[in-house]
Design brief:
Belongs to the short-chain dehydrogenases/reductases (SDR) family. This is NAD(P)-dependent dehydrogenase (Short-subunit alcohol dehydrogenase family). It comes from Bradyrhizobium elkanii. The structure is a single chain. With about 230 residues, the chain is of the alpha/beta class. It is built from six helices and seven strands. It has a seven-stranded parallel sheet with strand order 3-2-1-4-5-6-7, sandwiched between helices. It starts with a strand and ends with a strand.
Amino acid sequence: MKGKVVVITGALGALGKVVAEEAHSRGARVTGIDHAAPQFAATAERIELGGVDLTDAAQAKKAVDAAAAHFGAIDALINIAGGFTFETIADGDPKAWQRMYALNVETALNATRAAIPHLLNSHAARIVNIGAMGALQAGSGMGPYAASKAGVHKMTESLAAELKGKITVNAVLPSIIDTAANRASMPKADPAKWVAPEELADVILFLASDAASAVTGALLPVNGRV
């Protein structure tokens, strides 16, 4: 990743922080984009753009263009921004479906559309999205979330075909990620069987690297220690 310019959405979340730190440690120049306020002062190798609503196409474009202007290029876009809800179809809020679509599909779509013109100038351009194992076979309470992540899967496949030979486009499909929020919501579960953010970061950054030049259109499950 040395010298690569990487843009990460959702960079201040549990997974985003780990991916941003690992990319930076491998020599990448990193822009983190998030709805939350920046947490670190800008350096020559890393900046954070906070207060960005990626469900708004104009805000997404402004942030991505700012990242490209700061570093002079974009080589990889990693779409981590998203959300989760657990609601049954019969008793849940119908608005949850629109909210999940906005947080999981529109954020990735808007950032991707903004980044494509910059990525086309890179000799090894990459887009990596975050799907979900739960979208392959959704259980009870997973309807709105799984439907939105299924949208991410299909967007990934379609865009990979659209950009074949120009930009690789892949998605990782984690099972349960070992985060503080998931531990709090599932206190009786065994987090040792979940996916560690560091493990997921390794897979994401492989797909964003030169070594993954032959991989595009992949939906890669990351199951943890099942």
